[in-house]
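Hey Z.,

So I finally got round to the adenosine monophosphate thing we talked about over coffee. Here's the setup:
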Amino acid sequence: MRILVIGSGGREHALVWKLKQSPRVSEVFVAPGNGGTAREGAINVAVDAGDLDGLVELARKEKIDLVVPGPELPLTKGITDRMREAGIPCFGPDAYCARLEGSKAFAKDVMNRAGVPTAHSQVFTDPDKAKNAVVKLGAPLVVKADGLAAGKGVVVAMTTQEALDAVDDIMCKRAHGAAGAKLVIEEFLVGEEASFLCLCDGKTAVPLPSAQDHKAAYDGDQGPNTGGMGAYSPVPQIGQDVIDTAIETIVKPTVQAMADEGTPFTGILYAGLIATADGPKVIEFNARFGDPETEVVLPKLTSDLGAGINAILNGETPEFTWDEDNATLGVVIASEGYPTNVVKGAAIPEITVDDDSHVYYAGVARGEHGLVANSGRVLLVETSAADIKAAQDKVYAIIDKLDTKGMFYRHDIGFKALNA
Ligand code: AMP
Ligand code: GLY
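And the result:
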């Protein structure tokens, strides 16, 4: 099998690393990839993840058998539709289904029609009406830009004034551009949070182990929201009963709803959940592998990823087996200033790890004297150990002794599991 992975983050490095383990995979190309994917022996090709024409041309030229898109942009732009037209299997939803991630109003509409438990919400296109609703409902409230905003379009407002300011920023000042043309105002849910990802074939869904991201930049969940500063798996405070309920009440009805519309959902359905006192409820859908969740979930996979995805796309029963004895935990090292004022150029030290640990690179470039940081999230160090505490101790033992000048990381990844 010749595989094309689309994207350039830590998630794509982890996908490449896992796909490369398959005896059935002869070559992995990455568009555009990064220094880490090249180190895994993949072939980086300088085609942007949003360049659909370039990606189709590359897949044709290299006789690709399977395309695995990482980020949301190519999916919402229709890379799966384009690859299908070219007769090339692509493991992702078509543009219509990717709207589950691309438009929060669309996702709410699907969930409400399918009876999927989610935070109560209202959708607005008029800022004055949105502000009236904020005043009437009162804080706490969650204000969300409808469209894609790189994980930054959500404001959890603990006061009514914060919610009014968020409406102003998103709708009037267009802080996230066209993503703010519509706005969702949502009930604030209380409970443990988890990312629950399923591999879907249009009819059925195979769950991946649960994971928890840490979106805030600084320790103790302080500071601005980021793309994710670290993750661990599984989430022990979310019991198997909650997972079973989520499959029955969230995943199955959503997959069924998309099939009923004549547009079956293929690829990763990622439900961001809050386990409330009334059961798990959806706070967001994504239509792809999570980042950094993928970096802690894929190391647990003990079966062949490429073969599993291939089986899903061929309508066969895929084999996915997981290491259920160990916990994994990963910590992101980011450039100083991330996510607001990234200062690039920090020197990245060589990091030596044992067989149970990995370094997944994201924003790295080759400099004169080795790797240098060229983006916000630079790399993630992940390890596997008997439990979350042991994994946490082991990861910090690796990174605390590194020279991370010009970069920073959180010191408390996993704290919710340990406090539970
Ligand atoms: P999102 O970008 O949609 O994942 O939202 C960012 C963060 O905001 C989530 O990780 C949650 O911690 C929080 N959040 C989003 N929606 C809600 C909600 N309805 N209730 C409580 N917290 C929320
Ligand atoms: N970890 C959050 C995301 O992938 O959207």
